[in-house]
Design brief:
This protein is an alpha/beta fold and 383 residues long. The protein has helices spanning 16-27, 52-59, 64-70, 92-99, 108-117, 164-169, 235-238, 240-243, 251-256, 287-290, 299-316, 319-348, 353-365, 368-379, and strands at 8-12, 31-35, 47-50, 72-74, 76-81, 85-91, 103-107, 124-125, 130-135, 140-144, 149-152, 154-157, 176-188, 198-204, 207-215, 218-226, 264-270, 278-279, 282-284. The strands form 4 sheets. Strands 6-5-14-15-16-13-17 form a 7-stranded mixed beta sheet. A 6-stranded mixed beta sheet has the order 8-2-1-12-19-18. Strand 18 and strand 19 form a beta hairpin. Flavin-adenine dinucleotide (FAD) is lined by residues 12-18, 35-38, 45, 48-49, 129-130, 158-160, 164, 182, 184, 222, 266, 268, 286-288, 294, 297-301, 303.
């Protein structure tokens, strides 16, 4: 029988992290409400790669099977340089043999549906934009844009990169522009059989282009490029066909098969490490706590891991010990991954021809056992 816990938990933000936390907490008997700013669900970002560690974590909630049934399992990741060809190859089947799951390429909307399907009815309150909160020793009160208020025992800030909960806790800490913006889209195209289950990422100094199938007839792609801060670039000024004309196939073809209205442009920001992930009755998770560069495909995965660890800690420990244990458990891993993601993006976008040549030689010479060892650590989800 479901254990009923009297702690009232409010989650601000119904993204990947907030919904996963709500499911994990409800499965442990907590009473939970999610407050989401959007008036209807419209997950931003087209597709997402859910790596092994995310699937292992979601397996704990019984979600890996429904996700596998609507996503596309990948067998290989290849990193290639536009002039020098293949630099590195990761056999995801070996990872799956060891850790149980490969990486899944999935539409964000499908991921969102699976998460929403596993919540109790009436969990989510849409059109509730939180504008801030106040807290004392007994409770926390959230304020919403429509003038309403809600009181809870614990507030989880899962409201993403520009989190209002984080800004209320740490008003002096701002996100940093990375110097990169990123295009994303879904092409109506069937990849040739050798690429059907491969994720390829092509490097060319200022530009990068990564893609994989998301189902039999569609390909999800993302393309980070160096650009000044300010978001002045538009699809028209970027002139995609010309910009990627020198990339090998199927890159130009994927762009041709993507309706321009379906392409999104997102400036990439990072969050510097916070002094703390919690204060009294308020705790942060996901991008609100540690927004990172998307290069390792780990931002969403880390939000999922956060959610499960936080729910586990809450079911075992008193509130304040919980929040301390949650941060102690999660922070070293998340910060190591964020550093690696930043380094990856700097290495991938080296512009000097000589340094690219040197980089390519070093990356090629990296022994397979070393990259496998790093991936084993990255893809392992342990509490
Ligand atoms: C180009 C790109 C590619 C990426 N690719 C991958 C990938 O392949 N794999 C991966 O794991 N990760 C990837 N990521 C990272 C991933 O998208 C994020 O890390 C993840 O979405 C974070 O989840 P979250 O729940 O913390 O925040 P979000 O998903 O941003 O959700 C936050 C939610 O809070 C709501 N909200 C915001 N403010 C308020 C408010 N004031 N009141 C109420 N609600 C509010 C928002 O509407 C939103 O629904 C990528 C990111 C980018 C930019």
């Amino acid at each position: 029988m479901r254990k009923v816990n009297t702690v009232q938990i409010a989650i601000v933000g119904g993204g990947i992290g907030g919904l996963t936390a709500a499911i994990a907490l409800q499965q442990r008997g907590f009473s939970v409400r999610v407050y989401e700013a959007a008036a209807s669900w419209q997950p931003v970002g087209k597709g997402i790669w859910l790596p092994t560690n995310a699937l292992r974590a979601l397996d704990r909630l019984g979600l890996s099977v429904p996700l596998m049934s609507c996503g596309w399992a990948l067998a290989k990741i290849e990193i290639l340089d536009c002039r020098d060809g293949l630099l590195q190859q990761v056999d995801l089947r070996l990872i799956a043999e060891r850790l149980g799951y490969t990486t899944l390429s999935i539409r964000r909307a499908d991921l969102h549906h699976v998460l929403c399907d596993h919540l109790l009815p009436e969990t989510c309150q849409l059109d509730h934009r939180c504008t801030g909160f106040t807290q004392d020793e007994q409770r926390v009160t959230m304020h919403f844009a429509d003038g309403s208020e809600t009181v809870a025992d614990l507030l989880i800030g899962a409201d993403g990169l520009h989190s209002i909960i984080r800004q209320t806790l740490f008003p002096g800490i701002a996100v940093r522009y990375s110097g990169q913006t990123c295009l994303r889209g879904i092409a109506s195209f069937t990849l040739p059989p050798p690429l059907a289950h491969t994720c390829q990422e092509w490097w060319d100094g200022e530009h990068r282009f990564g893609f994989s199938a998301i189902d039999e007839r569609h390909v999800y792609w993302f393309a980070p490029l160096l650009a000044p801060a300010g978001g002045n670039e538009t699809l028209a000024t970027l002139q995609l066909a010309k910009r990627y004309a020198t990339f090998p196939q199927p890159v130009p073809t994927l762009l041709q098969h993507t309706p321009p209205a379906e392409i999104i442009l997102t400036d990439l920001y990072e969050l510097p490490p916070l002094p703390s992930w919690w204060q009294r009755r308020v705790v942060l998770l996901g991008d609100a706590a540690h927004a990172m560069m998307p290069n390792l495909g780990q931002g969403g995965a880390q939000a999922i891991e956060d959610a499960i660890v936080l729910a586990d800690c809450l079911s075992k420990l008193p509130l304040f010990e919980t929040l301390h244990a949650y941060e102690q458990t999660r922070r070293p891993r998340v910060e190591r991954i964020a550093r690696a993601a930043r380094l990856f993006s700097q290495i991938a976008h080296i512009r000097s021809g000589y340094l690219q040549w040197l980089r390519n030689r070093i990356v090629r010479l990296m022994p397979a056992w070393l990259s496998q060892r790093q991936l084993n650590w990255l893809y392992q989800f342990r509490e």
